[in-house]
Amino acid sequence: MGRTLSIALGLARRSTRKVIRNPIPGLPPALIPLFMFAAFAGALSALANTKGFGYYDFTAFQFVFILYMGAMLVAAFCTFELANDFESGVANRLMSGAPRRMALVIGVLVFSLARCLVTMAVIWGIALLAGMPVRGDALDIAAFTALALLLNIAATLYGAGIALRLQSIAAGTLVLIPIFMVLFTSPVFVPRERLSGWLKTVADINPLTPPIEAGRGFMADDPVSVGLAFAVTAGLVIVFALFAVTGMRKAEKGPGGGGGGRRSKRGGG
């Protein structure tokens, strides 16, 4: 276990050095949410005056969605690097030297969490500088942050599972599209009870809906759906952890499912 953690931390440090040397690829996970935050909070602010909106501030209403988006996009972009390592052959060499190959996924997870914290700090800072009011106390904000981090972990494990299966940077499409679909079929612009038709039906079963509603409750100092939100996010982490583990088993067999004999004898994930 100690060596596995050491390898994972080493991989996280390697990824961190790459971002420091070339920060440009690391900007989209922060810039995309901030661009949408500016667009939504400005152009759509009139929605706060519609009948039945009921939330204390439209900017804060949008902020919860934007922070979750940032956390999940950071996860997606971090797993792109894992896919690129497989495509370039680097990951195969790393796997040969790792007694437990899940160290590769743990390394991506550590790096993703670290980037997520930085990205969330940037988004928080800009939102507060823009004058966003916050009614929640320190405990509310801590719980809200915990939900965002759980979503980051779940999205990282999902992206890692895709990358391990495809072993190509082309996996990025299958990581990003489902994330955007889940984000934009949740109650983005108005409370869920104001939705109608198919969008309300989808929002009702969307696993992101409880965390979004709980986050907005924390921001307003009026917690709602807290137990459900943490149960859903923890469930996503468990499901996608299994998805990543089975993806690693597939990756150990090599492209096409063959060539697993030499690797699997060393003990896997």
Structure description:
This protein has about 270 residues and is an all-alpha fold. The chain has one domain (about 1-265). It contains 11 helices and no strands. The protein has helices at about 1-20, 30-45, 60-90, 90-95, 105-130, 140-165, 170-185, 195-205, 210-220, 225-250, 260-265. The longest helix is centred in the first third of the chain and has 31 residues, at about 60-90. The termini are close together. The model is unreliable at about 255-269 (pLDDT under 50).
Explain the layout of strands and helices.
Elements: H1 2-21, H2 28-43, H3 58-88, H4 90-97, H5 103-129, H6 138-166, H7 171-184, H8 197-205, H9 209-219, H10 226-252, H11 261-264
Helix pairs in contact: 1-5, 2-3, 2-5, 3-5, 3-6, 3-7, 3-9, 5-6, 6-7, 6-9, 6-10, 9-10
As a percent range, the share of strand residues is under 5%
SSE arrangement, N to C = HHHHHHHHHHH
Average of pLDDT: 85
Helix content: over 70%
**What's the number of helices?**
11
Quaternary structure type:
single chain
Shape assignment: elongated
Largest sheet: none
Give the low-confidence spans. 257-269
Radius of gyration: 20 Å
- Helical/strand content category: mainly alpha
Distance between the termini: 12 Å
What is the number of E strands?
Answer: 0
Keywords:
mainly alpha; disordered C terminus
Quick summary:
The termini are close together. The chain contains eleven helices and no strands.
